[in-house]
Amino acid sequence: MSEISTVIFDLGGVLIDWSPLYVFDENYFDSAERRKYFFEHICTSEWNEKQDAGYPIDRATEERVALFPEWEKEIRDYYGRWEEMLRGPVDDSVEIFRQLKQNPGLKTYALTNWSAETFPIALQRFDFLHWFDGRVVSGEEKTRKPFPEFYQRLLGRYDINSAKSLFIDDSLRNVKAAEELGISSVHFQSPEQLKQSLKRINLL
Q1: Cα separation, 66 vs 81, whole angstroms
Q2: Res. 99 pLDDT band, cuts 50 70 90
Q3: Phi-psi region at 83: left, alpha or beta (left = phi > 0; alpha = psi -120 to 50)
């Protein structure tokens, strides 16, 4: 039997299908080059992560518009059309989560980089977010992955033994940060890959 007693899930990209590309698709921009420039220089992943760590969305948007007024429509659409980026559950991953919940000796938690302003939308839309024994949301904590204090906040709040925990995230950066804290991890690439990884350690 596996010695793992706790499974910690990332949400976006693992259990929930979220992507800015659902708004900023090939039809949104005049060219692929313009879209590439937008994500690399205007609404970057680093910029989005600031809001994930608690920076106010309205303030972030107005500051960005002031810096790049010629991109105002695109910048306002980033959070103005945010719900369209939230496509739906990753059904096969949610089924794996459901199976893990049937193990009475296993605790499950969520550790997510997510704005506190938009997370309530996901809570309302996805029932499975209420299955966790606890969750830590970056926007509420004012810190995020991959910073060690964010992981430690989850471990301390719920009295989790890192040596008996498994962390699942689609970001290799976040996985490596967890492993540096002694948390075994799976770099999520697909539900089938996750299923096989869990079977190898007798969790499924």
Answers
A1: 20
A2: very high
A3: alpha
The span from the CA of 156 to the CA of 75, in Å, is 37
Q: What residues does 16 pair with on adjacent strands?
A: 12, 89
**Which among 11, 1, 17 has a CA at the least distance from the CA of 167?**
11
* 52-80 pLDDT per residue, tens: 999 999 999 999 999 999 999 999 999 99
Average pLDDT over the chain, rounded to an integer: 97
- What pairing do the DSSP bridges indicate for beta strands 6-9 and 107-112? parallel
Amino acid letter for position 31: S
Going from the C-alpha of 168 to that of each of 8, 54, 70, 124, the distances in angstroms are 6, 23, 39, 23
Strand partners, 168: 9, 186
With a pLDDT cut of 70, the percent of the chain lying above it is: 99
Which runs of E-coded beta strand occur in the chain?
6-9, 16-18, 86-89, 107-112, 134-137, 165-169, 184-187
Domains defined along the chain, listed by start: 6-18+87-200 (3.40.50.1000), 24-80 (no CATH)
Token pair of 24 as six digits? 């900023």
Q: CA-to-CA distance for 201 and 190, rounded, in angstroms?
A: 17
CB atoms within 10 A of CB 164: 15
Q: In what order do the strands lie in the sheet with 184-187?
A: 134-137, 107-112, 6-9, 165-169, 184-187
85: its two tokens: 């980026």
